[in-house]
Amino acid sequence: MTKPTFYYFSSTHWDREWYESFQGFRLRLVDMMNDLIEVMENQPDFATFHLDGQTIMLEDFLEIEPAQKGRLTRLIQEGRIVIGPWYVMPDEFLLSGESLIRNLLTGRKICREWGADPWRYGYVCDIFGHIAQMPQLFNGVNIPFAVLGRGLNEHDVPAHFRWSSPDGSECITFKLPDENAYASFLVVIMEAENSRLSPDETKRRIQTFIDKEMERSPIPVCLLMDCMDHTSIRRNTVNVLEMIRELYPEAEVKHVNLEQMGKQLEGYADQMPIKMGELNEPGKQPGSNYLITHTLSSRYPLKKANDECQVLLEKWVEPMAALSELRGYSVQKTYVDLAYKYLMQNHPHDSICGCSIDQVHQDMQYRFDQVKEISKHVISTILCKGLLRNHEEGSGHTRVLTLWNPLPFPRRGTVTVDIDFDQPYPTHYQEPFGYEVKNSFTIHDSHGREIPYGLCRMKKNFIVTGLGTETKATRAADRHTVSLEVDVPAMGTAAYTIVPSKKSSRYLDRLSRSEREAENDYIKLTVNDNGTVAVYDKRCGVRYDNLLSYLDDGEIGDGWFHASPADDRLIGSRGSECFIETVENGPARAVFQITHFIRIPKSLERHPHGLKRSEEHVTLTIRSTIGLSKGAAHVDVETEIDNQARDHRLRLVIPTDVPSPTFFANQPFAFVERPTGIRTETQDWKECEVPEKQMGGIVGKRRTDGTGLAFVSAFGLHECAAPDDNRGTLHVTMYRSFGRTYRTNGEEGGQLAGKLSFKYALAVLDASTSYADLTRLQEGLQVDMHAVFARAADDHVPAQPVSYFEISNSDICVSVIKRPDNGNEGELIVRCFNLSERPSSARFTSFKRIAKVTAVNLLEEPAGEVLHDSNGFDVRLGPWKIQTFRLTFGNFQ
Which of 171, 177, 229, 592 is the residue whose CA sits 20 to 30 A from 431? Predict the structure, then answer.
């Protein structure tokens, strides 16, 4: 027999903030790190300590103990303290793919600053489930190995297996034991010490554990996990190692960087089973292997703020900074890096998951605010001093509306913009007998064609700051809000002129020609008497009815888990009072407003004999605007909920009437397909399967002919369900109100009292609708086109539309366009990904002459040149492949 190898893993698991604030846990961190340095310096036989896979611990420690840097540096450079690969240990299901990549790149950069190579293990020991594309992301930063616990059970895989992404990328992965996970071996030692067992009895306990652990895999490699939340280095580790060597003299016992185990396991790869895709299995056996699903719906405002910040950085700041630099105006990259630092400090799993104490989540809001403030001012600077620095301004009454589209695909659709007119405006009209005076103006595209618009509302004597791009003066204006159909090229601009009209500038065409109905070329929208809506797909002849009702039930859970009391009441909105209004009806857009008044229990009551929802009720007011725009194959919705109740969960109900036994949802760089309903055989597991699953904001169902319906959220909604009912229903968790937080007597933050806002769409699908189409729809919801106004001479001729970068329509999307990490001028990084199970190709075009295109990995290291011409290149990707390209431009000045 091959002699076994035992790897002893010394580490700590450090939750940066959780049941204490960051500052509270940092006091412990400083003590732990100082103890670590002392022990390792005084015990040269203590070979290796792994610093939990995250480098932010180094930053947090040095802020308090800067004098310790030299001692710590020596231990790291000697390889005795292993650091990286992450900046923080994140959640996977709640973040964008670019956030995960940035996290790994930042961790790597910090490792290099300490003179060390980053750890080549994808260490995700405590994350609440895993996305399908994580092995591909790890491979992209030269990580071939992984350690994980949650999301799998021992009956799913042996201790060693190969985890594969949909594209075929693999990591050799160690599955932590179901019982006690990353603390599994430490618990054995601690129990022996706490019980004051004799050395012989301690050895028997150790032998029992190791023999059992060896049974988990036929491969003679065993990993012994000495790790626990917020623990210090174990001073008697060398003695424990000697016990193991005495017990197993035939074995090789190693206390080394765990990469050595990974390299040894490469020789056994052919003997390992392959597990593909996302890992979201609930925990079966007793122990600490809970999956913990409902963090997806905890503290909705945090999720929303995070999504908004990610979009600001990925879709606005990064591409606009790159474009501006290519056009001659550079913004310091450190602004972007600093914004990302603030954002990533909110990404540890106990932070972004919303399962910590209130103080933690209050601290997070400050960081989100800093990201938004930095982004806002960087974008403003780029527009005013970079991309718009030659924008002309005149003295006439003509206005130029310039629309900016930062996305790399053209957008034709309806926009709603505020036009602020100087007082007095030279032309106006009024309905007979002067009931209301309106400015009379027409809007024209760059070819001089008049664009019909709908007047949504007016505000007279409205105080605004500046009517031009750089003017900061405050003045009174007459604001007219209008909706019009526009056509803006990919990552570019289109200009429209607004000119005074001596004629009455009213447009009598309407999208809604009857009460509670609106119609365009693709959809007929109907508002039902009970406040639900029906959407008729005119292309496919399919009607989706009774959409957008609500279900409310009780909540006795916390940031980790949803749980309803046994004595519960499920309340639906379809029997509640509702109020229906038409608030906009023009040639380009119609909007209905539906207000639901739902009477629900005020709170949870605790009685001597148990829990129940209170008999006292409050009104839950839900106000939604349902819009249909010209040329749209979707209905857009904005909802505001005034939450005055406590201890409850609210879900959106979308009956699709699609009989498919599966549903689809998105996650970073992929879509996954899951069965509807739940597996009833899990009813006696430690953690039974729940209907709720992760989504990145998109969930839907399709028939075999490709028709179907999808829900697409802009921000904050990450929990969906597809109960196996006869209506093919989808549920989307809007929010959960709860008062329990770990190790407290209860707090108010999780109750989410007050107003909550949501933005989403319902999209009808036909056979041609791809996952990439839904992703582009989501990006369009997230990224409003930026409107800039300037005065112009009355004979002004608007500029022709300009496109700077474009990816052609295909299954391939772009996740980011940015400057390279090395700061080289005249270069651009473009990351593309294929959202299809088949090979796909697309054309990427550039406004600037391309000298060279290089395929690179996620570290932006070259992997080979790509054929190109002066203005573009063809992107060819295999199924579900993520590929990054470096573009080098000629004649950069």
Answer: 592
